[in-house]
């Protein structure tokens, strides 16, 4: 699961934005950042750290493609423990593509 926050567009007014003051304007020139959530449901500490290292390496290759100031949060689900490196990369690419696409109405 991936959550992607893009920097604010210029031209929006800070008085109507519900965002905190620390996130307006200053982050647009900041580098993109990534964070990882790997819970104990994924496995023991060795497995969790292995998954985190694999994801960190995969994200490092893709971070330059994100707009400056973006924040990316990657949450590893339990099947990530047995997934191959290639499978994690494909899943990450699919999740990033889904996060970048505009959200429309979803059918139930």
If you had to describe this structure to a student in words, what would you say it looks like?
It is a single chain. This protein has helices at residues 45-62, 85-100, and strands spanning 2-5, 33-38, 71-76. The protein is of the alpha+beta class. The radius of gyration is 16 Å and the shape is globular. The protein has a domain at 30-99: Ribosomal Protein S5, domain 2 (2-Layer Sandwich). Residues 12-27 have low confidence and may be disordered. Helix 1 packs across helix 2 (85-100). Helix 1 (45-62) links the parallel strand 2 and strand 3 (71-76). The longest helix has 18 residues, at 45-62. Strands 1-3-2 form a three-stranded mixed beta sheet.
The CATH architecture category of the domain at 30-99 equals 2-Layer Sandwich
Number of strands: 3
**How would a crystallographer describe the biggest sheet?**
3 strands, mixed
| N- and C-termini, Cα separation | 20 Å
Using the coordinates above, name the CATH class of the domain at 30-99.
Alpha Beta
| Radius of gyration over all CA atoms, rounded | 16 Å
CATH topology of the domain at 30-99: Ribosomal Protein S5, domain 2
* SSE ordering: EEHEH
> How many helices does DSSP assign?
2
Main sheet strand line-up: 1-3-2
Q: Which percent band covers the strand fraction?
A: 5-15%
């Amino acid at each position: 699961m991936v959550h992607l926050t893009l920097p604010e567009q210029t031209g929006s007014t800070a008085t109507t934005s519900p965002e905190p003051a620390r996130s307006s304007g200053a982050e647009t020139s900041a580098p993109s950042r990534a964070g990882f959530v790997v819970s104990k449901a994924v496995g023991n500490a060795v497995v969790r750290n292995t998954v985190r290292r694999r994801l960190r390496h995969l994200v490092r290759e893709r971070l330059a493609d994100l707009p400056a100031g973006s924040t990316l949060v990657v949450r590893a689900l339990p099947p990530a423990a047995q997934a191959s490196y290639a499978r994690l990369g494909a899943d990450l690419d699919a999740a990033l593509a889904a996060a970048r696409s505009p959200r429309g109405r979803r059918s139930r």
